[in-house]
Amino acid sequence: MSYIEEVRSAVAVRNAGQPEFMQAVDEVLATIAPVVESDGVYKHNAVLERITEPDRQIMFRVPWTDDDGNMRINRGYRVQFNNAIGPYKGGLRLHPSVNLSIIKFLGFEQIFKNSLTGLPIGGGKGGSDFDPKGKSEREIREFCQSFMTELFRHIGADTDVPAGDIGVGGREIGYMFGQYKRIKNVYEGVLTGKGLTFGGSLARTEATGYGLIYIMQEMLGEFGDGIKGKTIAISGAGNVAIYAAQKAIELGGKVVTLSDSDGWIYDKNGVNLDIVKDIKEVKRGRIREYADRVPTAEYHDKGKVWSVKCDLALPCATQNELTVDDAKKLIKNNVRAVAEGANMPSTTDAINAFQANHTLFMPAKAANAGGVAVSALEMSQNSQRLAWTFDEVDGKLQNIMSGIYSAVKNAAATYAEKFDFVSGANIAGFLKVAQAMIAQGV
Ligand code: NDP
Ligand code: 2IT
Fold first, then answer.
1. What is the pLDDT of residues 158-188, one digit of tens each?
2. Cβ–Cβ under 8 Å, residues 335 and 312
3. Which residues line ligand 1 (CB under 6 A)?
4. What pLDDT digit, counting tens, does each position of 70-116 carry?
5. What's this model's pTM, rounded to 2 decimal places?
6. In whole angstroms, what is the distance from residue 399 CA to residue 391 CA?
7. How far is Cα of residue 293 from the mean position of the Cα atoms in its chain?
């Protein structure tokens, strides 16, 4: 048995019942063999055993009262996965599906993604199975305060810096920051994605979606092509989907789909983002309302956006939302390129189908790293007690995405196959963290 196979078996036994975590581990282990099996230093230092075992896994009870006065209980999580290259960094997810497997897969992927940004940030992730849908403003605030009343003791500007993810945006980060400050009496950059009046960075809201389009541009630019004139299918209608759509439209693309967990819209004329933002960001409504307001648009509560003919596909909702059947439909419709805005949105079989077809495919660790990269820039601004302009931050984001593209492309060409960006991202992300871990001896 190879070293990788040995570790894979041991990790599977130790983490039984955690399918999403094993999916993320399997993908990394399946691609780093050219590096790990060619040099005994990794086995000698047990690097794979160490990198697959979180430094710390914190689970806690979160009590809160609903508007009827009932006490309600949720489970909170923070998995501090790896701090070899910087403080733990990664989002908080509030969604009823949240469990330890999901938080661990996200925390594990975050290690490699954060490494790819070139910035000094380690990997972590957290959240809760709390469902923010349909909750009042007061319920959200009380939940966030209660969540932070336990989390505060585990985090800090130089220890662990959480941010947003599904169900956590500026509003939730604001409430959590307020509670942290109140308990600790320290004003520090302990969270990113903060409001602009209290230490937030310009362009953080846009960063993940913009970064996704910037790296797509790099990938298409390889063939003298670009976003202009492309028909684009996007899933999701949250932070990542909306700002990916915004940048794509600005660059001359036509975004024809968006979705939420109830259904999806198709607007052959290209979506009107002002209406989408009003529905999603202002009214916190459902995507079906778009079709009520734009008569030419179709709303479907069955099927998925991937049945629509498109040049570019950007899954921006959640894990495993794009299956091998979806991949086959996209391939049949001649999709030119796929880039993952969400974390692990494509199943393993779907990725295999894209790669077998030589469809350009940029995996999440590289494609959506713009969000956490600008979070790291927010940390820098907080440390300096300065605020940079939108253009300054956006310019740095463009450079970072271009640097990620080069790193991923070069690692693919050196260790795997030209344009095998899955291997390239995993290997480039791994090498830096592994070297730091070996040097530090822990
Ligand atoms: P939001 O909460 O803003 O939006 C999530 C969107 O995806 C909503 O439209 C939501 O629909 C839909 N969605 C979520 N879960 C499901 C589900 N189980 N089934 C169907 N649809 C679902 O989150 P973000 O836009 O921030 O996050 C989207 C993805 O991007 C996630 O995978 C996240 O991990 C990833 N990501 C986010 C970053 C960020 O900076 N925010 C950075 C990097 C990656 P509904 O409202 O109906 O639930
Ligand atoms: O998945 C991710 O990279 C995020 N949700 C953003 C993390 C961050 O710290 O900004």
1. 999 999 999 999 999 999 999 999 999 999 9
2. yes
3. 95, 97, 164-167, 208, 236-241, 260-262, 316-318, 341-343, 368, 371
4. 999 999 999 999 999 999 999 999 999 999 999 999 999 999 999 99
5. 0.98
6. 12
7. 30
